[in-house]
Specification:
The structure holds three protein chains of three kinds. In chain B, 4% of the residues lie in helices and 45% in strands. Classes of the chains: A mainly beta, B mainly beta, C mainly alpha. At the A-C interface, strand 32, strand 34, strand 38, strand 39 and strand 44 of A face strand 1, helix 2, helix 4, helix 5 and helix 7 of C. Strand 38 of chain A pairs antiparallel with strand 1 of chain C, so a sheet runs across the interface. Bound molecules: calcium ion (2 copies). One calcium ion binds next to strand 50 of chain A.
Chain lengths: 1096, 353, 532
C-alpha cells in the first residue's frame, strides 16, 4: 500500500493538468498526475494492478476530470480524504431499509493504523446494521456518532475487515491487518473456479510466476519445486524428453501419472502439457485430495493437474508483450577419467590382482605419461548448445469481448554434436471471449508444432561408450577418419553422431475448445463445452552407413523408417450451474454435468532396410522389415461416459461443505465392471471469522481447518485386457526356408476393474504476523484398493498374466507450505518454502511378496513394506588380512583375498548366501522441497529458486561404480581411486580385480549396499537478476515496461552423490526401471542466459 | 575442479640381484637359446604389483642413459627375465663388443609401476662373448660396375634399414661386379655376398641384367637376393593385374597414361587397387607378393590427404583387403602411377591426366 | 463413442480356434521355443524373441570354449563356478522351457476345437507338440534334476504350490511320450518339401536315444540307434563333406535329423558377430575356443598329440591335424575363405599381422579373442550384414547317432572292428582322414576314451559337450583350474599357453543347477538341490 505526502485535497482536484500517456502503467500515470502537486494516491495492489495501463491525452483538464476518465475503463473510483486520494472499487450501497430506534449516541474517535503502525487514510467505519458511516482522514483519524451498544465495522480494501463493539468507549484505536492476497485469489477447480477463502479441498495453485524468466523448455520443468507434492523428476534432459510426474508420491503399483486438464478439457496423454507454451499459462493447479479431485472420478486417484491459459481483459487497450531468453546450455559431466598413464597402471593392477599379466609394460606407461592425455571421447561428443525462447502476445478487450493472440518459439540445440540436432517448438494461440446478451462464448484455438532432430542411435549407448574409453586413444586420425580402438571396436560415437544419420520428428497438435455459457437467470447458468485435440506425429529415421578405421562400421543396414501416428480426442460436456445466496448467509452452489470422452489413435510404421545410401529411397535390394506395422495393427480406441456433480454450501464465509461425485463408464472394462461411482465430501471451518477469534485474527491472521474424504479411481490399464487376445505375427519360425507365422497370446483378466483409492485429507491454513506469514499444512492418508498388479507368476506357469486387481497400498504423507512477505523501505521480499513427504506401505499383495531380480540387486514387494525396496547383502567392511579370511563368512564357491568385501552373515552359518540378504533401502525420493526467494530493490529484482530431495537411496551400477566393468569399460574414473589398498583400508570401493576373477565376482556380482548411494540433494535450480527501466525512461523509448535479466539454471548442487546427477532418475513413473541407474543419461546442462521482457 | 590423482604409486628399489653372478661369463651362441636374469623382489607402497625392467650399460656407465632396457617376463611382472641370444648379441653390439670379441657390461634392475622408476641399489657386471658376425653399419650403400650408380662412390644407391635391423634395397643389377660400402665417400668398409653369405670385403659378379631385392642380415651374416620379375597394378574389383609398371631405376616403377575405369557395383563404383610383385626366389620358384595400404579399408583420398596414406607395405593376398582407393576424379581418366621403393618409407603416387 | 469396442489387430477366444492356419501358428510358436540362437536385440524380431542365446554359449559352459566378454547366457559365471541361485541364466532356462511347454499345452488342449480339421494332420501336429514338450522337459531335468511335471496346462495356483517330480519319473514320461510321437510321426522322407524341418519319426527316436544316453542306459541306446541305422525309420546317412554339412546350400541333407529353422534375414541369428575373427567383420570377441579343445584333435595318423610317435610339433601345431580342426577352429595363419571366394589370412599371434592394426592378434585385455583362437564352424558365408544368418542349427544329426551307438557299445565292452567300421571309421573318413592308422580299429586302445574324444571333436560347437562332461562326471576334472589359449603367453607360465580363465567346479553340487532363486520365492515347495 503506497501512502505518502501532505495536504491540499479538493484544490488539487480542480487544478488543471496536461498529460499524455501512451500505454503507460496506470500507477505511473497517477504518479505523474500527482507530480509536484503535494497530493498522494493511495491504493492497494489488489485494486490497482501493476499490469493496468492506459493511453490517454488531456490538455488542461481538471485533475478530477482526468481521474474519472482514466479510472473509468477499469471500473475504479476515488475518494478524497485530506490530501490523500484513495483509489478503490466502487462500493455498492449497503443501505438497509427500515427505521432505526433512537438510542443513546456516543461520539467515538480514534485512529486506524496498519500492521506497521502507519496511519491508514480512507478506511470506512460504519455502524453495523446501519447506513451510518465515515472514513478516516489523511492521518488515519476518524470520528463517528454511534449508539453506545453499536458495533463498528472497519473496512478497507486489501485489509481484513474488523468489527469492534463500542461498549460505551469514546476512543477506539484500531489496527487493521492486510488480507492474505491468496484469500481473494481465484482458484481453479474441476469444472469451475472458487475463491481461495472458500476452498476446502487440498489444492495448490501457482500463477505465471512459476514460468517467468526460467529457461524451462516445457511447463513441467518450470513447475518443478513450485508446488508441494507435485513431484517432477527428469529422467533425461535431452531435448524433447518428458519428465516423470506424480502427485503425492506413489500410491499404486501401476501407472502413477496424474490426470491433465487444460482449460476444462481432459487430455488423454499427460505429456500434452509439454506442448503448451509455458508463457501462455495463467494458472497451474494441483488437485490432491478426494474432495477436490472426485469430480474427475475414475482417473483422479493420482491427482489432477489443471492448467488454464491466459485471456485478455475487458476494457483494456491492446498490449503487446514480448519476452525472450537466450542462453547457453553447458553440459556438466561430474565424473572424469584418470590420466591415461594412471589408467594404464590401474589396469595393470586389476589384471595382476586377477593373476593375469600386466597389460602395459613400464615403458608404455611412461610413454602415456610423456605423451599426455588425448581428448576424452565424452568431451569430444559434447558441446555447449544454444537455447532460446521467444514469445509475443497481444491482449486486450472491449466491453463485451476479450482477446489474446500469442506466438512462441523455443529452440533448444542439442549438447551432443551432430548436424542440426535439437528441438524446436512453435506455439500459436488465440483465446477469445464474447458476450452476446446472456450468452458468453469462449473460443480457444491452439496449435503447436515440435520439430526434433537427433542422431539415429541411442543416447545412453553413445554416452557410455564415449565415457568408457581411456584417454590414450584418438577419436579421429589426421585424415579425419573416425577411429575405433580396443574399447570401441565397432563404433565410434563421434562418427555416428556426425555422419550416421538422424531421427527427425515433426509433430503437430491442434487443440480447439469452444464453450458456451448461457445465463438463464442470474443464478442459473448452462454451459456446453466441446473440445478436441488432433495430434499428428511423424518420425523419419535414417541410418547412414559410417565406416571406421581400422575396423567396424555403423548402419550397414541403411534403414529408413517412416512412422506416423494420428489421434483424435474429443471431449463433450454439458453442465448446469446454480449459485445462490440466501439471507446473506447461506450460499449454495450446485453443478451437474455429463460428458463423453472418445479417443481414436491410428498409426503405421514403414521400415525399410538397404535403402539408397544417399537418398534413403528404396532401390533394388531394399527390403521391408517385418516389424513394419500397418494401421490395422496399430489402432487404439477408448470411450468414457460420465455424469458428475458438485454441491457447495457456505455459511457466512465461515462454515463450508462440499459434495462431489462422478459416475464413469469405461470401454476398458467388461460390461459388468464398466461403471463406477466416485463420491467425496469435504468440510471447512474458517475459525478466524468467528467473533470470539477476533483477538487472534488481529494478532495473527486467518485460520482455517478443512477436511475431506472420498473415493477416487484409476483406470490406467491397456485396452481390451478383459479378453484373451491372440496376436498373430509373421516371423516366428520357418520350414524349408520359408517363414511361418506365430501367435502371441495375451491372457485375459475378465474381472478387471477400477482401482479405488479412499483418501482422507486434513488441512489447516493459518496466518501469522498479521498474515505476513502464512502457513498451510496438509496430512493425507490414501488407501488404494483393487490395485492393478502384474501378478507374480512362477516361471513354471509359462506365461505372464495381465494386470489384475489384487493389491492394496496405503500412502500417507504431508505437505507444508509457507509464504512470507516483508516490505521495508526499499526492499520487498517474498519467501516461499514448500516440502512434502509421502510414505507408502503395501497392505495386501497376492502371495504376500514378490522378489524380482534387478541387475545385481533385487526388488522386493512385500506386505508391510514400502513398494519396491532394494534387497541385497549388507557390507561389513573388507577382509583386511588372512586372519579375517580364515574366520570370516564367505560366499560359497568363492575364494576371497584381502581387500575384498566382507558381507554380514545374518544367520551366522559362516556362509554368505541368499539367506543373508537385507532390505537395504528404498529408491523413492522423500522430502521433496522447494524454496523461492524474491526480492526487489528499486529497479532491481532478484529471484532464487532452490529445489531438492531430502532422502533417497539410489542404486547405481555399471562402469561408474565398477572399474573396467565387465571389460566393457576400460576406464577408471577419479572417484574410483578410493579403492582398497593396505594404505586405504576404509576405502569406498574394494580392491581392483579384473573381470572374471573370484574377487571381482565377490565384490561386484553380488548386489550389496556398496551399490547404494545417498541420493539426497539440494540444487540451486534457478537464479534471476533483473533490472527494470524506470517508467519514465521506458516511456521515452516508447515502451511501457522494459526488464532485462540474467537467468541461470542448475548452477549449483549439493549432493550425497558426486559423480552422477542426483536428479536423474532411473525409474519410470510406475517405479518400474529398465535397470539401475548407470549414469548413462544425457548430462544435465548448466544454463546461463540473458532475457528481456518488454511491454508496449 | 581439481583432478584426483593416483596415490601411493612408489616402489622400493631392488636390493639384491641373483643371476647371473657378478662377473659371470656369458657366451652368446649363434643359435636359439637364452640366458636367465633374476633378482630379489621390490615392494610397492600400496602393496600392489611392481614392474621390473632390466637395464644394460657400459661397464663404466651409470645407467643414466642405458644402452638397452627390457621389461621382465610377463610384461614386467616377474622378478626374472629370459633374454634370447639374439637380443643379447644386439646388446653386446651396442656395447661395442666386436664379433667374436669379449666385453663387459653392467646390468641392473629398475623397479616401478611404470612411473616413479627406482634403480636397484646394486648392479652387476656380466662378461659377454659374441659369436662371429659382422657389426651392422649405420648406413649401407651398393656400388660397383654392376650397379645403377656405377663405380662412382658418391652415386652409390643407399639401403633402407628395416625395423628388425636388416638392410633392404630394390635395385637393378647388370653384368659387372658389385659390393656394399658403409659410406659413400672416403674409404668405407666393404662387404659382399657369396651365395647367401654376407662377408667382409670382396665383390660379387653379375651375369645378366635384372631387378632385385637384396636383404642383408648382419646379425646372421646372411643375404637374401630375390629377383623382382615384374610389378603389376592389381585392380581389386576384378581380382587381376590390369597392367604392369615398368622399372625406371633406383627402386622406382612407373606406369604412364594408363586408363582407369572404376567398376560399377550394385552399391556404387569400386576402384580399389594394390600392387602385385612377381618375385623369383633363390630356388627359382615364382611367387606373388602383394603391396598395399596399411589400412584394411580406405576412403578415397583427396588433395588434403596426408602422404602417409600412400605408404606401401607388404599386405595380404586377399582380393580386396588393404587396397588403396583413387581420388574420385580418376574414374575414366588416364593416370601415371609411380611406385617408389627407393626411399626409406615405400610409397606411391598417382597423377591424373 | 460407444463403449463396446473390439480390437482391430488381434483375435479373441471367440474367433481364434476356427481355422487350421491359426491353430498351426500356435504350433509354429511352440517350435520357436525349442532353442533360440537369436539375442533379444535383433531389430527384425516382432515380437522380440526371448533372451535365449543358449545354443552357441552353452559351448562356453564346457571346457571347449570361453565366454570372455560379458556373461552371455550365464556362460562365464557358470563355467568359472562363481554363480549362485540368483544367476539370470538359471531363471531364463527355467522360464524358456516352461514357456515352450505351455505353448504345447495350449495347442494340445484347444486344437480339437478347430472345426473340420483333417484327423491325420491333427494327430501329426499333436505329436509334434508332444515332442517339443518332451524336449523341454528333457532340458529341464538334465539341468535341474527333479522338476515340476505337468501333463496339462496348470493354473497359476498349481504352479505356486507344486513340488518337484523326481527325475526318474520325468525321464520316464519323456521316454513314453517319445515312443508315442515316434508311432505317429511320419519318417523324414514322407514330409513334403514345404514341411522340411518338421519333427519326424527319426527325430523322436534319436531324441529318445539321447535321453537314454544321458541316463547311461547303454543297451537301450543301442536299441534306439539301431532303429535309425537300419533305415526303417527314415533315411539317414553321413553327408559327404564335414565342412558342407554346416553350409546353407546343404540344409536338409541326409545327415540332419532335427535342426532349428532359420530363414535368411527374416528369422535369423547373428551370434557370429561376436564369434568370428574381427578382421572379417566381427566385433569384440565373446566366444572363443580353448587350447584344450584344439589339443583334443587327433593327428592325421590317429594319435593324440601327446602320444609317442604322433609327430606333433609344438612350433607347428596345426599341421597334420584332424581336418575337422580347420572346419571348427580358426588359429594363427588361418586361411579364412571370404564370401567372394578369396582368402584372408588370420593372424592371431601378437605382432605378426602385416596390417599394423592386427585386429585379430591376441592382446591381453584387448577385444580380440582372449584365447588366440576363433570359431569357424557355423560361420555362414551367405550371411548378411553383421553375420545375420538364416543357417539352420542342427540339434541332432546322424553322426551323433553313430557316436551314441559307438559309446554305448564301448561302455558295454562290445566295441569291435565291425561296430567301429559302422561308426567311427565312416565318421573319420568323412572328416578327411585317409591314414589307415586313424581309420582302422585299434583293439588295444581304451575304447570309451576314443569314442568320447571323437564325440568331442566331431560335435564341437554344437552345444553338446557340457552335457557330455556332466554325464561322464568329468566336469570336476576339466572345469577346474585354468582354461588356456594359444601359446602366446609368458613362457614361464603353463608352458607359454595363455591363461584365459580360471574355473572351479564344485562336484558336491554343481552337477545339478540350483533351482532359481526367483522361482523358489514364488513357490517354496520347490525345495533346493543338494549343496545349494
Ligand atoms: Ca549365512
Ligand atoms: Ca535356413
Amino acid at each position: 500500500t503506497a501512502i505518502a505526502g501532505n495536504t491540499y485535497g479538493q484544490q488539487f482536484l480542480e487544478a488543471p493538468v496536461t498529460v499524455k500517456f501512451k500505454k503507460t502503467r496506470l500507477v505511473d500515470a497517477l504518479d505523474k498526475i500527482a507530480a509536484d502537486k503535494h497530493v498522494r494516491f493511495a491504493y492497494t495492489d489488489m485494486v490497482l494492478k501493476q499490469s493496468l495501463s492506459i493511453t490517454y491525452n488531456a490538455n488542461n483538464k481538471s485533475v478530477k476530470q482526468v481521474l474519472s476518465e482514466v479510472l473509468a475503463p477499469y471500473n475504479l473510483t476515488y475518494k478524497v480524504i485530506g490530501d490523500v486520494i484513495v483509489i478503490s472499487e466502487p462500493t455498492f450501497a449497503t443501505t438497509i431499509p427500515g427505521s432505526q430506534e433512537q438510542q443513546k449516541q456516543v461520539k467515538v474517535q480514534g485512529k486506524v493504523t496498519d500492521a506497521a503502525n502507519l496511519s491508514l487514510p480512507g478506511v470506512t467505519i460504519s455502524v453495523k446494521g446501519t447506513t451510518i458511516a465515515t472514513t478516516t482522514d489523511a492521518n488515519g483519524a476518524f470520528s463517528i456518532d454511534a449508539p453506545d451498544d453499536a458495533v463498528l465495522v472497519f473496512s478497507f480494501i486489501g485489509f481484513v475487515t474488523k468489527e469492534v463493539p463500542v461498549n460505551g468507549q469514546t476512543a477506539i484505536n484500531v489496527q487493521l491487518i492486510e488480507d492474505r492476497i491468496t484469500l481473494n485469489e481465484v482458484v481453479v477447480v474441476g469444472y469451475g473456479t472458487q475463491k481461495r477463502s472458500s476452498v476446502v479441498g487440498a489444492i495448490d495453485q501457482v500463477g505465471t510466476v512459476a514460468f517467468e524468466g526460467k529457461p524451462a523448455v516445457n511447463a513441467l520443468q518450470a513447475l518443478q519445486g513450485t508446488l508441494p507434492s507435485l513431484i517432477i523428476q527428469q529422467r533425461s534432459l535431452e531435448p524433447g524428453q518428458a519428465p516423470n510426474v506424480n502427485i503425492r508420491g506413489i500410491g499404486t503399483l501401476g501407472n502413477n501419472t496424474p490426470l491433465l486438464v487444460i482449460d476444462g478439457i481432459v487430455y488423454e496423454d499427460f505429456n500434452a502439457v509439454n506442448n503448451i507454451n509455458p508463457s501462455d499459462i495463467e494458472t497451474s493447479t494441483v488437485l490432491k485430495d478426494a474432495g477436490a479431485a472426485a469430480i474427475y472420478g475414475s482417473r483422479s486417484s493420482n491427482g489432477v493437474l489443471l492448467i488454464t491459459t491466459k485471456k485478455g481483459q475487458k476494457n483494456s487497450k491492446a498490449t503487446v508483450n514480448y519476452n525472450g531468453l537466450i542462453g547457453s546450455q553447458v553440459p556438466r559431466i561430474t565424473y572424469r577419467p584418470v590420466h591415461a598413464f594412471e589408467n594404464a597402471i590401474l589396469r595393470n593392477e586389476a589384471n595382476v590382482n586377477a593373476a593375469l599379466s600386466p597389460i602395459f609394460s613400464p615403458q608404455q606407461v611412461r610413454d602415456f605419461q610423456t605423451r599426455g592425455d588425448r581428448e576424452w571421447f565424452l568431451d569430444a561428443i559434447l558441446q555447449n548448445a544454444m537455447q532460446q525462447n521467444h514469445n509475443v502476445s497481444i491482449t486486450g478487450g472491449s466491453e463485451k469481448s476479450t482477446y489474446l493472440v500469442s506466438a512462441g518459439l523455443l529452440d533448444q540445440r542439442n549438447n551432443l554434436v551432430g548436424p542440426g540436432f535439437g528441438a524446436r517448438r512453435y506455439n500459436f494461440r488465440v483465446n477469445l471471449t464474447n458476450e452476446i446478451g446472456r450468452l458468453k462464448l469462449t473460443s480457444i484455438l491452439a496449435y503447436n508444432r515440435t520439430e526434433r532432430k537427433e542422431h539415429s542411435f541411442n543416447t545412453s549407448t553413445l554416452i557410455v561408450d564415449a565415457g568408457r574409453t581411456p584417454t590414450y586413444y584418438d577419436i579421429k586420425d589426421e585424415n579425419g577418419n573416425y577411429l575405433t580402438n580396443d574399447v570401441l571396436a565397432q563404433f565410434n560415437p563421434l562418427g555416428i553422431l556426425e555422419q550416421g544419420g538422424y531421427r527427425q520428428a515433426d509433430d503437430d497438435g491442434i487443440n480447439a475448445n469452444i464453450s458456451a455459457e448461457l445465463k438463464i437467470t442470474n443464478d442459473l447458468k448452462l454451459r456446453g463445452v466441446f473440445g478436441g485435440t488432433l495430434v499428428s506425429n511423424h518420425t523419419l529415421e535414417r541410418v547412414k552407413e559410417v565406416k571406421f578405421l581400422p575396423m567396424g562400421n555403423y548402419g550397414a543396414d541403411r534403414n529408413t523408417n517412416d512412422i506416423n501416428y494420428k489421434s483424435l480426442f474429443l471431449n463433450t460436456q454439458l453442465l448446469a450451474e446454480y449459485n445462490k445466496t440466501f439471507a446473506k448467509k447461506h450460499s449454495i452452489g450446485v453443478l451437474v454435468g455429463v460428458a463423453n470422452e472418445s479417443f481414436t489413435g491410428k498409426g503405421n510404421e514403414l521400415r525399410y532396410r538397404l535403402t539408397d545410401p544417399e537418398l534413403g529411397t528404396p532401390i533394388g535390394e531394399t527390403e521391408i522389415v517385418p516389424s513394419s506395422r500397418g494401421t490395422l495393427q496399430n489402432t487404439n480406441e477408448t470411450s468414457l461416459n460420465s455424469a458428475f456433480g458438485r454441491v457447495t454450501y457456505d455459511f457466512e464465509n465461515k462454515y463450508y461443505g462440499e459434495f462431489n461425485f462422478r459416475i464413469d463408464a469405461s470401454s476398458k472394462f467388461n460390461k459388468q465392471n464398466r461403471s463406477a461411482f466416485f463420491p467425496s465430501i469435504s468440510a471447512g471451518y474458517r475459525i478466524s471469522q468467528e467473533d470470539f477469534m477476533e483477538g487472534y485474527r488481529d494478532k495473527f491472521g486467518d485460520l482455517k481447518i478443512r477436511g475431506s474424504y472420498g473415493v477416487l479411481g484409476n483406470q490406467n490399464v491397456g485396452n481390451y485386457q478383459f479378453q484373451n487376445r491372440f496376436r498373430r505375427f509373421p516371423n516366428v519360425y520357418g520350414f524349408n526356408n520359408q517363414l511361418v507365422g506365430g501367435v502371441d497370446i495375451d491372457f485375459a483378466n475378465p474381472d478387471l476393474r477400477w482401482e479405488r483409492a479412499a483418501t482422507l485429507n486434513l488441512g489447516v491454513d493459518a496466518g501469522f504476523l498479521k498474515n505476513m506469514l502464512t502457513l498451510s499444512f496438509d496430512y493425507f492418508n490414501k488407501t488404494t484398493r483393487d490395485i492393478l498388479v502384474e501378478p507374480a507368476v512362477p516361471g513354471t506357469f509359462g506365461a505372464s498374466l495381465p494386470l489384475y486387481n489384487a493389491g492394496e497400498v496405503r500412502n500417507q504423507g504431508w505437505e507444508f507450505n509457507a509464504n512470507y512477505r516483508i516490505n521495508t523501505k526499499n526492499f520487498r521480499h517474498t519467501f516461499n518454502f514448500n516440502v512434502g513427504d509421502s510414505k507408502n506401505k503395501v497392505l495386501k499383495f497376492e502371495g504376500d511378496q514378490r522378489l524380482t531380480s534387478y541387475d545385481e540387486m533385487q526388488i522386493l514387494l512385500k506386505v508391510g513394506m514400502p513398494l519396491a525396496s532394494y534387497v541385497g547383502y549388507k557390507t561389513d567392511g573388507y577382509f583386511q588380512n588372512l586372519d579375517d579370511i580364515n574366520n570370516g563368512p564367505k560366499p560359497t564357491g568363492l575364494n576371497v583375498v584381502p581387500g575384498d568385501i566382507r558381507y554380514v552373515d545374518v544367520n551366522k552359518d559362516g556362509v554368505i548366501d541368499e539367506n543373508d540378504k537385507f532390505v537395504l533401502g528404498n529408491p523413492f525420493p522423500r522430502f521433496n522441497f522447494g524454496f523461492n526467494y524474491n526480492v526487489s530493490y528499486k529497479q532491481f529484482d532478484f529471484a532464487l529458486f532452490v529445489q531438492g530431495v531430502g532422502k533417497r537411496s539410489m542404486f547405481v551400477r555399471g562402469e561408474l561404480v565398477e572399474p573396467f566393468h565387465f571389460n566393457y569399460g576400460q576406464v577408471m574414473y577419479q572417484h574410483q581411486l578410493d579403492y582398497w589398498t593396505p594404505m586405504n583400508p576404509d576405502a569406498r570401493y574394494p580392491r581392483l580385480a579384473a573381470n572374471g576373477s573370484q574377487s571381482n565376482t565377490n565384490n561386484f556380482r553380488r548386489g550389496s549396499d556398496m551399490y547404494l548411494y545417498n541420493g539426497a540433494y539440494l540444487r540451486v535450480k534457478n537464479i534471476q537478476l533483473g533490472y527494470t527501466l524506470p517508467a519514465k525512461v521506458a516511456q521515452k523509448i516508447g515502451m511501457q515496461k522494459v526488464r532485462a535479466y540474467f537467468s541461470g539454471q542448475n548452477l549449483f548442487t549439493l549432493s550425497g552423490i558426486k559423480f552422477i546427477d542426483p536428479e536423474v532418475s532411473e525409474f519410470d513413473n510406475n517405479l518400474g526401471a529398465g535397470g539401475a541407474n548407470s549414469g548413462r543419461n544425457y548430462p544435465v546442462p548448466v544454463y546461463y542466459g540473458f532475457g528481456l521482457d518488454i511491454s508496449l | 575442479k581439481k583432478d584426483k590423482t593416483l596415490k601411493n604409486s612408489n616402489v622400493t628399489p631392488v636390493t639384491n640381484l641373483f643371476f647371473p653372478a657378478d662377473n659371470e661369463q656369458v657366451k652368446i651362441l649363434n643359435a636359439e637359446g637364452s640366458v636367465n636374469f633374476e633378482w630379489q623382489q621390490a615392494k610397492s607402497e600400496d602393496n600392489g604389483f611392481v614392474q621390473y625392467e632390466v637395464a644394460f650399460d657400459k661397464e663404466d656407465g651409470d645407467f643414466s642413459k642405458p644402452l638397452y632396457v627390457l621389461p621382465s617376463d610377463q610384461n614386467g611382472l616377474l622378478n626374472k627375465l629370459t633374454i634370447s641370444y639374439g637380443t643379447l648379441n644386439t646388446i653386446a653390439e651396442l656395447a661395442g663388443i666386436e664379433p667374436l670379441g669379449k666385453g663387459k657390461l653392467k646390468w641392473t634392475v629398475m623397479s616401478s609401476k611404470g612411473i616413479n622408476v627406482k634403480q636397484a641399489t646394486i648392479s652387476r657386471v656380466v662378461e659377454m662373448e659374441r659369436p662371429s658376425g659382422l657389426r651392422a653399419p649405420a648406413v649401407l650403400y651398393i656400388t660397383g660396375t654392376a650397379t645403377e650408380g656405377g663405380d662412382d662412390l658418391d652415386q652409390a644407391q643407399s639401403f633402407r634399414k628395416n625395423p628388425d635391423g636388416k638392410f633392404e634395397i630394390y635395385t637393378k643389377l647388370k653384368p659387372g661386379t658389385y659390393h656394399f660400402v658403409d659410406g659413400n665417400s672416403g674409404t668405407p668398409a666393404t662387404y659382399s655376398v657369396a651365395g647367401t653369405v654376407l662377408q667382409p670385403d670382396g665383390e660379387t659378379t653379375v651375369e645378366s641384367e635384372k631387378v632385385y631385392r637384396i636383404v642383408l642380415n648382419f646379425q646372421t651374416q646372411t643375404a637374401e637376393i630375390t629377383e623382382i620379375v615384374s610389378v603389376g597394378f592389381w585392380f581389386s574389383p576384378n581380382g587381376e593385374v590390369q597392367f604392369e609398371l615398368p622399372y625406371v631405376g633406383k627402386g622406382v616403377w612407373q606406369a604412364t597414361n594408363e586408363p582407369i575405369v572404376f567398376k560399377q557395383e550394385s552399391w556404387g563404383r569400386d576402384e580399389r587397387y594394390k600392387f602385385r610383385f612377381t618375385v623369383k626366389k633363390a630356388g627359382g620358384e615364382e611367387e606373388f607378393e602383394f603391396y598395399g595400404s596399411r589400412n584394411g579399408d580406405n576412403g578415397r583420398p583427396d588433395p588434403s590427404t596426408p602422404p602417409i596414406y600412400f605408404d606401401v607395405v607388404l599386405v595380404t593376398p586377399a582380393q580386396y583387403d588393404n587396397s588403396f582407393k583413387f581420388n574420385g576424379d580418376a574414374d575414366n581418366k588416364n593416370v601415371d602411377i609411380r611406385l617408389d621403393f627407393g626411399v626409406s618409407t615405400y610409397t606411391h603416387s598417382v597423377t591424373i591426366k | 463413442k460407444k463403449l463396446d469396442l473390439t480390437p482391430t489387430d488381434v483375435f479373441t477366444d471367440a474367433n481364434f480356434w476356427t481355422s487350421v492356419d491359426k491353430a498351426s501358428s500356435v504350433l509354429n510358436q511352440a517350435y520357436s521355443t525349442m532353442f533360440n540362437a537369436t539375442p533379444a536385440s535383433n531389430p527384425n524380431d516382432n515380437p522380440p524373441n526371448p533372451p535365449n542365446n543358449f545354443f552357441f554359449y552353452n559351448e562356453a559352459l564346457s571346457d571347449n570354449a570361453y565366454n570372455g566378454r560379458g556373461d552371455n547366457a550365464g556362460a562365464a559365471s557358470i563355467a568359472a563356478g562363481t554363480y549362485d541361485p540368483a544367476l539370470g541364466r538359471l531363471r531364463d532356462e527355467w522360464r524358456v522351457n516352461y514357456t515352450g511347454i505351455k505353448t504345447c499345452h495350449i495347442f494340445l488342449e484347444n486344437v480339437d476345437r478347430v472345426p473340420g480339421m483333417d484327423n491325420t494332420l491333427k494327430e501329426r501336429m499333436k505329436a509334434e507338440a508332444r515332442f517339443i514338450r518332451a524336449w523341454h522337459y528333457f532340458m529341464l531335468t538334465t539341468w535341474f534334476g527333479d522338476v515340476p511335471l505337468f501333463t496339462k496346462d496348470p493354473t497359476v495356483e498349481e504352479t505356486k504350490t507344486t513340488s518337484r517330480t523326481p527325475k526318474a519319473q520325468v525321464v520316464s514320461f519323456i521316454l513314453n511320450e517319445l515312443d508315442a510321437c515316434a508311432a505317429t510321426l511320419p519318417v523324414n522322407t514322407d514330409y513334403g518339401i514345404p514341411d522340411k524341418g518338421r519333427i519326424s519319426k527319426g527325430a523322436a527316436i534319436a531324441l529318445k536315444a539321447r535321453v537314454l544316453l544321458y541316463e547311461s542306459r547303454w543297451a537301450d541306446v543301442v536299441t534306439e540307434c539301431e532303429k535309425l541305422m537300419s533305415g526303417n525309420n527314415g533315411t539317414y546317412s553321413l553327408f559327404p563333406s564335414y565342412e558342407g554339412l554346416f553350409l546353407q546350400q546343404n540344409e536338409y541333407n541326409s545327415e540332419v535329423i532335427l535342426d532349428l529353422q532359420y530363414v535368411p534375414q527374416l528369422r535369423a541369428h547373428s551370434e557370429f558377430f561376436d564369434i568370428a575373427p574381427l578382421s572379417v567383420g566381427a566385433r569384440t570377441n565373446a566366444l572363443s575356443p580353448t587350447q584344450e579343445l584344439v589339443d583334443s584333435y587327433l593327428m592325421l595318423n590317429g594319435k593324440r598329440i601327446n602320444e609317442s610317435g604322433s609327430g606333433y610339433d609344438e612350433n607347428n601345431p596345426y599341421a597334420n591335424r584332424d581336418p575337422r580342426l580347420t572346419y571348427t577352429v580358426v588359429y594363427d595363419q588361418y586361411d579364412w575363405k571370404l564370401p567372394d571366394g578369396s582368402v584372408k589370412k588370420i593372424y592371431t599371434k601378437p605382432g605378426t599381422d602385416p596390417n599394423s592394426a592386427g585386429p585379430d592378434e591376441y592382446r591381453p585385455g584387448g577385444i580380440s579373442s582372449p584365447t588366440g583362437y576363433y570359431f569357424r564352424k557355423y560361420y555362414d558365408p551367405a550371411a548378411g550384414i553383421n553375420f545375420i544368418s538364416g543357417l539352420n542349427l542342427i540339434l541332432i544329426r546322424y553322426a551323433d547317432v553313430l557316436l551314441m551307438y559307438a559309446e554305448a557299445k564301448a561302455e558295454m565292452d562290445e566295441m569291435n572292428a565291425s561296430v567301429w567300421n559302422e561308426t567311427i571309421k565312416p565318421i573319420r573318413q568323412r572328416a578327411g582322414f585317409t591314414n589307415p592308422a586313424a581309420l582302422d580299429y585299434n583293439a588295444s586302445a581304451n575304447q570309451v576314451n576314443v569314442v568320447r574324444n571323437e564325440r568331442r571333436t566331431e560335435l564341437a560347437l554344437e552345444g553338446l559337450r557340457i552335457f557330455d562332461i556332466r554325464r561322464w562326471r568329468i566336469a570336476e576334472d576339466v572345469l577346474n583350474g585354468w582354461a588356456h589359449g594359444a601359446k602366446f603367453g609368458p613362457p614361464g607360465i603353463d608352458n607359454g599357453y595363455i591363461r584365459a580363465n580360471q574355473r572351479s567346479f564344485d562336484a558336491s553340487r554343481a552337477y545339478l543347477w540350483p533351482i532359481p532363486q526367483d522361482e523358489r520365492a514364488l513357490n517354496p515347495n520347490l525345495g533346493q538341490n543338494p549343496g545349494w
